[in-house]
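Lab notebook: predicted structure, single chain.

Context: the supervisor wants predicted structures on file for every construct in the current expression panel, including those that have not yet been purified. This is the next one on the list. No modifications to the sequence; it matches the entry in the shared construct table.
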Amino acid sequence: MRLRNRGKSVDTGRNFRLPSQAAGTECRKEDHPLIEVQRLTKRYGKHTAIENLSFTVGKGEIVGFLGPNGAGKTTTMNIITGYISASEGSAVVAGYDILEHPREVKRAIGYLPEAPPLYPDMTVEEYLSFAARIKGVERGNRRGKLDSVVDRVRINDVRGRLIKNLSKGYRQRVGLAQALIADPEVLILDEPTIGLDPKQIVEIRNLMRDLGRERTVILSSHILPEVTAVCRRVLIINQGRIVAEDTIDNLSAGLSGPRRLNVRVAGGEHDVLAVCRALPAVKTVKCTGSLEAGTVELYIEAAEDRDIRKILFRSFAERDLPILMMRSADANLEDVFLRLTTEERREPNHD
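Prediction complete. Output recorded below exactly as produced.
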């Protein structure tokens, strides 16, 4: 796993492959990235929204783009889609530079912002016909494209209704339909399932997986289980900088291993906790309950990036407190996200 810190790469010792080669991804088209961002920076006066961002996304990848509010996600997506310009750096989409060939870039991208760009006084069919026309879909193909996308996002039953009379979930799906109407190579989706009910969320997640087999998808979402369910690789941005990029499995493995343990010990809670708290090698110890009579379940984290299993075994054995179970504590994407964004916030800003 490789984490990025203040514009520098920090290797944790884990195996790390380039984004286009990340485990489980399918980078076709001779492995050339479909999106290539180099040293992208955006300033608003004295405020730097994003700084020195560089990453690539290959064809056939579904990449999660994560970060806390104000981290720079929307700014980055707006630059890639040509909505705003960068102060420095470059971005190439489907082989076209966003500054030199803005029209070609816009044709290659389907964009669903967090607030879908809808016209409430149009019917769904009128709006999608309009979207097809301004996106350059040939007249003879518009009906077929419209019918296909309406069926794909399951809005056939409301295609004749005014958009202003639709529920939030239906409006969200109409927004997704406009992003798909021109059959783009790249989809950029910002909170695509917001406002949907659980059944609709499952349907859209399945649709995103299907779309990822045919085209490149960047998914920005605060629903981390959704990112885990759909994406294999993530970019995490904080304070305008990318702090980590890798597959979800590799990022989780970087916070798991012998440094974080779940342990079951035979003994009383007071005695067991006293052993752990007396060890300088232990940073955190929490009692998480008892699954067996006369035992204590513990979550233990090492003070440093080291294997503390032998230290724990000897310390408990010396006090006649047998360890009945010890295993690595699995870190999920939420653990990774909170760890990286919290640690970055604690660092002083030298800008």
